[in-house]
């Protein structure tokens, strides 16, 4: 019964996170303040309800897989073989934020190579094509994966738990921050402030334009959080900076 309750708990948290952190930005940008965000829209093509329904259905399915993997490595006897710890004070409190940052870096590396593999011509149509049905993604596409891809996405948790000590608080903060960044990447609108373009952050971090171009062109910009791997391996779309600047000029004409 503990495993069942563990699964239901993680699934409930995952669905709640999806509804809140994908739903709120969706309704703000696409409905309540649609006119205010008009200049920030990355692609001008219109969405339709069928796309939203497909994205939500696939996301609900993916959440089942994510909850199953979480249950196996957090609530089952398998957790004894991981580095997960229960007492928050087993490690210094500063380890929690550092732990989350390291988890994001490891995840970005894992995601880049996993993502490129899913784009292989012999694999793509059987897995990653589902996600790319959203050529102009909305926040609802954040978890819209084929069930097989959902497993590859969820594998980051055991990778992290076998790599470094993680408290349940670190796991929660990592998955929450990861999902929020994921929603931003699929938002369909660019919301970075004007100063961001001339800061060092622009050279390091991905943007909504960055990932939107991946959905639009089906290749390039494979990174999840950072530009590092794409820039190092020459897979960043050559028009990224140009397209980003064009949209920012539209957003901030003065």
Q: What's the SSE blueprint?
A:
Layout: H1 2-32, H2 49-74, E1 84-85, H3 95-118, H4 129-132, H5 147-154, H6 156-161, E2 166-167, H7 168-185, H8 200-204, H9 208-217, H10 228-232, H11 240-251
Parallel strand pairs: 1-2
Protein name: Sterol desaturase family protein
Pfam families: FA_hydroxylase (PF04116)
Domain Fatty acid hydroxylase: 100-235
Instruction: Output the number of helix runs.
Output: 11
Strand content: under 5%
Query: What separation lies between the terminal Cα atoms?
Result: 61 Å
pLDDT averaged over residues: 95
How would you explain this protein's 3D organization?
The longest helix has 31 residues, at 2-32. The protein has eleven helices and two strands, in the order H-H-E-H-H-H-H-E-H-H-H-H-H. 59% of the residues lie in helices and 2% in strands. The protein has helices spanning 2-32, 49-74, 95-118, 129-132, 147-154, 156-161, 168-185, 200-204, 208-217, 228-232, 240-251, and strands at residues 84-85, 166-167. It has 254 residues and is mainly α. The termini are far apart. The chain is globular, with a radius of gyration of 19 Å. The mean pLDDT is 95. Strands 1-2 form a two-stranded parallel sheet. Helix 1 runs antiparallel to helix 2 (49-74) and helix 1 (2-32) packs parallel to helix 7. It has one domain.
